[in-house]
Write a structure and sequence with these properties.
Blueprint: E1 2-6, H1 11-22, E2 26-31, H2 39-48, E3 54-58, H3 64-71, E4 78-81, H4 88-93, H5 95-116, E5 120-125, H6 149-168, E6 172-177, E7 180-181, H7 190-200, E8 203-207, E9 213-214, E10 217-218, H8 219-231, E11 249-254, E12 260-261, H9 262-273, E13 278-282, H10 297-303, H11 311-326
Parallel strand pairs: 1-2, 1-4, 2-3, 4-5, 5-6, 6-11, 7-10, 8-13
Antiparallel strand pairs: 9-12
Length: 328
């Protein structure tokens, strides 16, 4: 089995690639190393995958002719499309980055899947729920009022995918990720930012006075869910799928199904770091939401997804990794 993984130098992409390699499968990793955050971290993730079964292609998937040329020598059996321009707040001031990577790029990947006739799992986001106040968020809830451009592009990905599943009977699975964290994580995410500030004795922005809740999901649980969905693409059987499609297109929430107060995250980080965290209260940021909470009943039913890692375990794991990575 040969899997094409986009965003292979990214947080989730590298973890999924590592798990596939551990299963004895082959991975073609695609990444163009956009400097949205520190490139040394991306390079280190990619380097950790080097070895038998792994091929790294430094290619922008939004460049369709370049993508076709880069993949021409390679057979692929399926695609796990995790590459994207992430970040709610970055999208406020850098909208064109999202148009190219998340819209043009997703379309290029759909075309690749269509012409290769292979199934694809792709990354959506819990951000598509916007300011939805019905908790937990269920895939049946309306998700047509995004409050950030990032969220709008992820919803557009779902809509484009529905069209391709309908027109070309292409098996597609969209995963709405909920606040993923863990070793090798992203520096722009709260767990990294809070840990870094705590260990350095610096103040960190504490948005909305800490009156926020997040469904923090550990990377190992995420990987298990991604692989389960990749191993079992949706059937073209005219039966309704999660998300409402009767084409071979399913949409799932993939989270911890446990929403935590931001104040509790702070307490767990302080305990893991062995020192207090200095907080700088700030108002709610544009595009942000006060609560996220995943209803994972659909992916649990269809794929046996059952996250096992609470933040009491996952956060110390991250802090230990961070100390080793930075030497702090």
């Amino acid at each position: 089995m040969v899997t094409l993984v986009t965003g292979a130098a990214g947080f989730i992409g590298s973890a999924v690639s590592r798990a596939l390699l551990a299963r004895g499968e082959s991975v073609i990793g695609l990444d163009c190393f956009v400097p949205y955050y520190r490139l040394d971290l991306k390079e280190a993730r990619a380097a950790s995958l080097e070895g038998p079964g792994f091929t790294l292609l430094r290619q922008d998937f939004a460049d369709a002719p370049g993508l076709e040329a880069a993949l021409a020598p390679h057979r692929i059996d399926r695609i796990i499309h995790l590459g994207a321009q992430p970040g709610v707040r970055w999208s406020i001031d850098h909208p064109l980055d999202y148009g190219r990577s998340n819209l043009t790029g997703h379309l290029a990947m759909l075309e690749l899947a269509r012409h290769r006739q292979v199934p694809m799992v792709y990354a959506s986001s819990s951000s598509v729920y916007g300011a939805n106040t019905r908790l937990p968020f269920a895939v049946e809830d309306r998700a047509d009022q995004p409050i950030s451009l990032y969220a709008a592009t992820k919803k557009a990905n779902e809509l484009m995918s529905e069209t391709y599943a309908h027109l070309y009977r292409l098996p597609l699975t969209g995963l709405r990720f909920f606040t993923v964290y863990g070793p090798w994580g992203r520096p722009d995410m709260a767990v990294w930012k809070f840990t870094e500030a705590c260990l350095r004795g610096e103040a960190v922005p504490y948005n909305n006075g800490g009156r926020m809740r997040r469904d923090f999901t550990y990377i190992d649980d995420i990987v298990a869910g991604v692989l389960a969905c990749a191993d079992r693409p949706p059937a073209d059987d005219a039966a309704p799928k999660p998300g409402g499609s009767v084409s071979p297109h399913a949409i799932y929430n993939i989270g911890n199904h446990r929403s935590e107060d931001l104040a509790r995250l702070v307490a767990v980080i302080e305990q893991a770091c062995g020192k207090p965290l200095r907080l700088d209260p700030q108002p709610m940021q544009p595009g942000d939401v006060p609560d996220t909470y995943a209803d994972i009943s659909a992916i649990a039913k269809d794929h046996g997804f059952a996250p096992t890692t609470p933040i009491d375990v996952g956060v110390p794991n991250f802090v230990n990794w961070y100390r080793g990575w930075t030497g702090v």
